[in-house]
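User: We ran a pulldown and think these components assemble together. Before we commit to crystallization trials, I'd like a predicted model of the whole complex to look at. Sequences follow.
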Amino acid sequence: MTTQPVRFFQVGSFAVGNRLLPSGDRTVQSDADRTNSLDAGHRACQGCGEALGARYAIDAAMRATAGRLLVVNATGCLEVFSTPYPQTSWRIAWLHSLFGNAPAVATGMAAAMKVKGKTDVRVVGQAGDGGTVDIGFGCLSGMFERNDDVLFICYDNEAYMNTGVQRSGATPPAARTATTEAVGSQPGNVFGQGKDLPRLAMAHDIPYVATATVADLHDLEGKVERAMQIRGARYLHILVPCPLGWGSASSDTIRVARLAQETGLFPVFEAEGGQVTAVSPIRHRTPVEEYLSLQGRYAHLFGEHPSLDVIARIQAIADHNIARYGLDPGEHDDAGPEGGRP
Amino acid sequence: MLRQIEGSRAVAETVACCRPEVVCAYPISPQTHIIEAVGAMVKSGALSPCEFINVESEFAAMSVSIGASAAGARAYTATASQGLLFMMEAVYNASGLGLPIVMTLANRTIGGPINIWNDHSDAMSVRDTGWIQLFAETNQEAVDLHVQAFVIAERLSLPVMVCMDGFILTHAIEGIDVPEQDAVDAFLPPFEPRQVLDPDDPVSIGAMVGPEAFEEVRYLAYVRQLEALDLIPAVAADFARGFGRSSGGLVRSYRTEDADTVVVALGSVLGTIKDAVDARRDAGERVGVVGITTFRPFPVQAVANALAGAQRVVVVEKAFSVGFGGVLSTDVALATQRSESSLYTVVAGLGGRPITRRHLETMLAAAGEDQLEVLTFLDLDTGVVEREQARMAAATTRPGPTAEFVLRDLALRQNGEVEP
Amino acid sequence: MEPPFAITLDVGSSRANHTGSWRVERPVYVDRQPPCSDACLAGERVQQWLYQAEPGDYEAAWRQLVEDNPFPAVMGRICYHPCETACNRAQLDEAVGINAVERFLGDLAIDRGWELPPAGSDTGKRVLVIGGGPAGLSCAYRLRRLGHHVRLVDSAVALGGMMRFGIPAYRLPRDVLDAEIERIIALGIDVGLEHTVEDIESERAEGAFDAVFVAVGAQLARRLDIPSGDSARVLDAISLLHRVADGDPPQLGLRVAVYGGGDTAIDAARTARRLGATDAVVVYRRNRGHMPAHGDELDEALAEGVTVRWLSVVDRVDPGRLVVEKVRLDDEGFPVPTGETEELAADSLVLALGQDTDLTLLERAPDVAVDDGYVQVEATMMTGEAGVFAGGDSVPSQRTATMAIGHGGRAALGIDAFLAGRDATDPPLAAPATFDRLNTWYFAEAPRTRRPELERARRVSTFDEVVGGLTEENALFEARRCLSCGNCFECDNCFGVCPDNAVIKLGPGERYRFDYDFCKGCGICVAECPCGAIDMVPEEI
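Assistant: Here's a predicted model for the assembly, 1303 residues in total across the polymer chains.
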C-alpha cells in the first residue's frame, strides 16, 4: 500500500496556530509571547484591518530580527490611533515624523545604523496607501532606487480613511469615497485610474516586492521573514480592509480580504529582482459580486437595478489579474494543502 | 592654517571635521559646492565613517536627517531657497521632535520669478520653525559657526541653521583659517543624543498631541530657545579660547559707542555697511553698526543694550514681508521699544541686487537728516516701477505677469528705445 | 536628559485605555455538540478522541474512547458508523473516516496490550447481567468501573453474542473479538457460560442481586410460511452464521438464494460465497433505495460476485428451484404483487427476514412490560420493575452492536444511580454544532483515506478479513481531517485575528480567555473561528 507523508495538520496552514507543528514552525501570531508590537488600548475602529496587519507584520519583523528593529510610521490612521498623547500602543522603537516622508526617515535610520556598525538593527517604514502611493511616493521611489536597506510596508485600505474616506491613488474603480461620490452617471471612482504600486516597486528592480492580505497570515509572515533575510530596499503591500471606509461589517474584515484575493481583484505574489517568483493561487475562485456586495462602498452597484455592466468591468479586472499572474487554481495542481506557496 | 579657499569648500572641510555621520545632498544653488565637497571627502574616505546620501528632494534630505538624528547619528545637510521651502514641513518637524540637525542655508531669494541670487527671503520664511538661526558675516565666521552649531544643537537638542549669503560667501575665494581636526575634536564632544531610537530601550517618538498639551509643548520649545541665548555666547567664548578668534555670539557692535545712528543688519552685508560707516565717520557723522549673529532665538536684551544709546536705528535687510515691510526691523522695534520716528527699514539687495557702499552712504546721509522714509527700498528703479504701475492703471492693457513687463521694459531701455 | 514632554512616550502605555467600553456585544466561548458524537449510538465522544489522536497520542485517544466504549477494535470493523453519516466534513469533501481511526486505535491497543481503566473501588452492590453480547459486556464493563460486583451469564459457550455468532469472521476476526472481551473480563467479572436464565425473579433472589440487566438479544429467526416441496433446502441466516461461527457450516450447494434485505441477508450471501456457492443471489422485495442493508456492505458483496434480484418475492421453494414473483412499489413504497412469476435455480434458500427475542425469562416478572415482543424501558433503560433494566436487541430500537453498546453503557449509569438512590438525569445536551457555524476556509482540502480491501478474488474463498486497517500515517491523516465542530481545538485563530489583542492564550489544553478590558466586540474572532466555538451575545447595558 502506498503511504502518503503526513503533512496535513487538521486545518492545513490556514489557521493562525497549529498545536501539531513543532514550535519553531509555528506562526509568530500563535506565540503567547509574541511581541504585540501594537498593543491593546489603541483607538482603531472595531475590526480594523490596519491594526491587525500592522501587528502581524511588525511582530513578524521583530521575530525575524530578534527584536533588533526600528520602525518609522507615516501620518495616518495607524499613527493617530496608536499614539495619541499621553499613551502609545507601540512596544517597539517607533517614530512618527510626517505624512509623506516615512521612506526617507527610514533611509536616515538605516544610514545611522550602518554608520554606527549596528547592522543587526533593521529598519521598517510603514504607511497607509495615501502615505505610500500618493504623498509619500517621491520619497519611496528615492529609497527604492538607492536600494536603501529598508523594508517599506504599505497597509492598503484603498482610501484616505483618517481624514474621512477620500479617494487615493489606490482607490479601486467604482468605489464610493467622500471625493468619488456615488452620484451622477458614473457613481464612485472612475475606471482607468490608480497606481499599481507593487508593479511600480518592481520596476525599480529592488530585491524584493510582495503583496499579502490580512486573510493569509502564514503567507504574510513568510513574506516579512523573507524580506528581512534580504538587504536593500524591499516592499510589502498588505491589503487591510477598513470597515468604516468600505462599509463592511467589522466582523467581516478578514473575510473581505480573503475574497479580494479569491476573486482575483487583489493578486497575492512575490517578486525578486523585478520578476514575479511566486503567486498564491486562488483556492476557490469567486465572482466579484460576492466581494463587492459585502461593502457599502459598492452599494450603488446593487439594489433594485444592479449595474451589471459595471460589475462586469470589475470582473474583467479580476480576470485580467488572474491571467496576468497565473492565479487560476487549475494551474497549480500540485498546490497541496499547504496552500500552494511554492 | 590660513588658506586661500572658496567659502563652500572651507565650510565643507569644517563640517567634515565635525564628523557628521549622515550627510544628505540635493543640488540647489548656491549650496551645491558645499555638499559636493563633503561628498568627495566621504567617497575618498577622508570623512569616515559617514553615509553620504544623494536624495531625491530637499524634503527627503531633511527627512533622512530626521531619521538619522533620531537613530543617534550626527546629521548634516545644506540647502537654499526653494529647497528650504520644499523641505519646510520637515524643517518644522525636526525642531518639533528636538533633533539636533545642523543645516547650512546658503541664502538665496525665493521665486517667482525664479532667481538664484542672494537675499534673506529663505531664512526669514523659517524664522518661526523653532530652529536656531545663526548668520555668518564672513566666510571665516561661517566656518566657525558650523563648529559651534553642532555644539549648540547637541547641547540643547535643537536643530541649528547656519545662514551664509549665497554666492557672496559661498563662492568667494579668500583667506580662511579652516579649523584643524584636533581642535574641533577638542571642542566638539561625540554626539550624546537626548533621545534615541533604540531597540534595547524602546520609546515612541512623535506622538499626536492634542489641545490638552500642545501649548505646553510649544511653551517648552520657547523656553529652550531662551536657554540658547545663554548658551550661544558661552559657546562663542569657549570657541574664542580654543581657536583664538572671536566668532558667533548673539550680536556684535561696531563703532556704536557714541553713535547717533546705528545700522542693524544680518550677514555679509555688514562688511559693506562697516565700510560705509567708516566713511561717514571720516565725514564726522556719529554712526555705528550692530550685526546680529543670532537671529533665532532673537536676542532681545542684547539688541536693546546694543542700541540703547542710538537716536535712530536703520535696519538694512535683505528680505521683507510683502504687504507690511521689514521683518528684522519688526523684531528690532519690539526689542528696543522704538516708534517709527526713530526706526527706519531699508530693504536692500533683493534677488542679488548689489548693495554698494555708495548706496549705503547716500542712505545714511538721508537717515542722519531724518529724511529717510520709514520703509525704503534701496536702489529702486522708480522709472520701471512707475511705468508698470501706469500700464496696470490703463484699462486697455491686458493683464499679465509683472515680471515679464518689467524685464521687457528693461530690455527696451537697454536698447535705448525708452528713456531711463 | 529626559525625553521631551508629550512628544516621546513610554511603550505600551495605551493599556491604560480600556477600549472594552466601546463594546455592545461580547464574544463568549462555547462547546457545542458535534454531529459525530451526537450520532454515535454507543455514546462515544468522537470529536474528543480524534482530538487526542491528532498529535499522535494514540493511547490518550484510546483511553478517551474506552471511557464510553470498550470495543474500539470491534466497532472499528462492524459499526455502521452513523457518526460518518452525520459528519459535517461530508459537506466539505468527504466525511472523516472515524471508523477506520477507531479500528486503528483498537488494533494498536491490542497490539500494545493497553489495559482498560481499572475497576472502581468496591461498592458492595451486586448486579446480574444476562447476556454476553455487546449490550451485556458494555454494561458489565461500565458497572465494574463504577465498583459494582458483576455476574455475567450467557447461554452460549462463549461470550460475544451476535458479535460472535451473527457476524462472519471476514468482517470481525475472532482474535480481535476475543482480545477485547478478555480485556473486559480481566476487570474482574464473574462469568457464567452455558447458563440460561429461566426465570429472572428467582435468579435475582438466589444471587441476591441488587439489580439486573437483561440483554438477551434477538436470537430467534423469523420464519415465513413459504409453500415448499419435499426436501427443499430452507434454513435461516442466524443458524447459518452461528454454525459457521461454530466451525460446523451447513451444506448449501452451488446455487444459494438469500431472502431478505438487511445486513444479515448480505452477510449470509457473502458467507455462502465463501462456503463455495458459485451463485449467491439475494432476493429482495423492494429496490436499492429502500434496502435496509448498509450500502458499504452491499457494495462489498456485489464486488464479491453476489447478485441481487430486486422487486421480487419468493412464492414457492422446491428442490433446486424457487418460484419468484415480481412486485412493483406503490406510491408509499410498499411492494404490490404483479402475478408475474419466474423460476430461479437454487439449491438452498436462506431466510434472512429478521429476528425475535426469547423473553421466557420474564414471564414471572409482571412489572416488566413487553409489547410486540420488545421489553419496554425508560430512558435510563429501566423496565417497569425497579432494579431491572434491559437493552440491546430485546428493547425497541435499532438492532446493531453499536446501539447495544450504547444501551449497556446507559443502563450501567442508570443502575449506578438506582443503586445509589439517585435520579439518573442526563446532563442537558449542548446545542448542535451545525455546518453553517463553521468557517471551512481554514480547513485544507484533504480527501479521505481509504482502507485497503482484500483482493477480490481471494476474499470470496476465505474468511480472512476483507477490510484492512489504516497505517499509522493514514490514521493520523484521517484523524486530522476532523473539523472539531463546535469545540475549540486551539488553532489560535481567535488569538491571532483579534485586532485588539483581547484574547489571552492560556497554554496547551487550557484554551483562551477574552480580555474584556480591551475587546471592542468587532466579532472577527467569531467569524474566523474555524469550528464555530464562539458565540456573540449582547452586552447588558
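Residues 320 and 327 of chain B are 6 Å apart (CA to CA). That may be worth checking against your pulldown data before setting up trials.

User: Thanks, that helps.
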